Amino acid sequence: MEFVWLRNDLRIHDHQPLVDALASGTPVMAGYVFDRKHDSVTENGFPRMDKKRRRFLIESLLDLHQQLGRLGVPLVTAHGDTAREIRNWFQQYPLSHVRAFSYPGVEEIEEAQAVEEAVRQFGSTLTLYEGETLFHETDLPFTQEEVPGSFSAYRKKIEKSRLLPRQEAGEPQEQTPLYLEDHAETGEELMKQFRTMNASTLVSGGEKEGLKRLNDYFFLTRHVLHYKERRNGLFEFDDSSKLSPWLANGSLSPRRVYWELKRFERVVEANKSTYWLFFELLWRDYFHMLLRKEKHAFFKKSGIQKLPVVWKQDAGLFEAWCTGKTGYPLVDASMRQLKATGYMSNRGRQNTAAFLTKNLGIDWRWGAAWFESQLIDYDAASNYGNWQYVAGVGTDATTFRIFDVVKQGRLFDPDGVFVRHWLPELQFVPNEYIYAPYEMEELALIEAALQLGSDYPYPLVPLEHSAEERRAEHEEARKIRDSSSN
């Protein structure tokens, strides 16, 4: 019996392991393990996977349970150590071969090695496939060791080579329904878990929902034609594609997005916005390739730049940042949005990450861990790659980039609609002060029914002064690194 080990590929479209298993002529079953590492708690005391992402995951598995059922493929699930649970399935069922996608993360590689060792004890093998990115690593015009240190160089090499993503895997064929008692129990258990999940998310999980959003954004509303102009918006749902949650757990294939984008350009229109969506997919690919290259360095404090910045580990400042109580409305509204919905705009992520690292000077890994916990679109490569980038220890780290969170708010939400939605205590603050209420005179505060220090906090740090302190620390770290390498 063929076994398809499901990981971050919770779909039936563009799924080569599933296609090959069903074409093998032997019965096929699929399995997913809720690995115990996701039940762990971080050093700061919060869960590694918050209930919002867990809910989205369960919704995705419920949908996949139905999709696989239509193909006659039973789905079983388990909680615990992945290798041990797969070993248990080998003891329970006459399994002969395992197929799965490979992933670039350090934990994912170690997990696959453990599974390979476990099934070898039964005389079986594990076949791994590429498929979490647009391009296969073997198709790139450079080796893994030659992956450029900047996205711009990566993009130019890809575009110069005229490389195209591979076509999607074919449609999986149906098999004679394979009945397993555990398949029915899996559906019941997933539904039971779903009903107990007291959490709400921005969107619902599952391949069906992901494909619907893709079609709506491209062909139904054609909002993709305005993606480049609207992508920095903070409040409206269609300011961006919102495809990232389904891409993150593999309910939606990046190649499906790409080829649907090409179809849209062919039958509707190609413009700067459609190119820019491809541009963002390429960023996602780049971080995945960079993670494959850098491995453990992707998660180290000094980053891939090996920059010995002395980061603070101040629990009080970090807690204020997590809960949206920094005294800077753009940061606070974005953090409260994240906590409530499991989502934050790209502009919000850049500003909140920059504030934590470039103003508060807090260890960027703490921020990355909080985003991992809270985001329903958490993806290890994109999350840690972007955090290193903003913190100045990752790719493209030639300049010290800062974000003025007051100016950014005024630029991208001048009327304060986003802020007032998430910070109702600022409801009556005039637009000119909505991103800097600490600048208001006493009479203006009274008229706005706002008391700083109780209704809303004073700023944790002064923006310009704190950024200059961080700049000096980074310059010193560069001197130390460069002198030690000479």
Number of DSSP helices? Answer: 20
Structural class by helix and strand composition: mainly alpha
Tell me, what's the shape?
A: globular
Q: What portion of residues belong to β-strands?
A: 5-15%
Structure description:
By secondary structure, this protein is mainly alpha-helical. Among the domains are: 2-132 and 180-189, 3-Layer(aba) Sandwich (Rossmann fold), CATH 3.40.50; 315-484, DNA Cyclobutane Dipyrimidine Photolyase, subunit A, domain 3, CATH 1.10.579.10. 50% of the residues lie in helices and 6% in strands. It has 20 helices and five strands. The protein has helices at residues 16-22, 51-70, 82-92, 106-120, 151-161, 181-196, 207-220, 227-230, 244-248, 254-267, 272-294, 315-322, 329-341, 346-359, 364-374, 380-391, 405-412, 417-422, 442-447, 463-485; strands at 2-6, 28-35, 75-80, 97-101, 125-129. Strands 3-2-1-4-5 form a five-stranded parallel β-sheet, with helices on both faces.
